[in-house]
Amino acid sequence: MNIFLDDDDIATLTGRKMKGGQIDALRKMGLPFFVNATGHPVVAKEAIHGRKEIPVVKSEWIPKALRSA
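Structure for DUF4224 domain-containing protein, as requested:
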């Protein structure tokens, strides 16, 4: 199971076949991606489908003496 979109998926998503056009389209869409060593955009499937779980945010620890009652 691959966690990244394949080249055909990125071309379909952006409507562009050339890597430069794909990068421009992804930037305009505001989708997170990175560029690999060959200059092609790499998009995680999670960026398209969304996260399945909500991340737990830990609250900052406050000493008992400083907590308001």
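The chain has one domain: 7-66.
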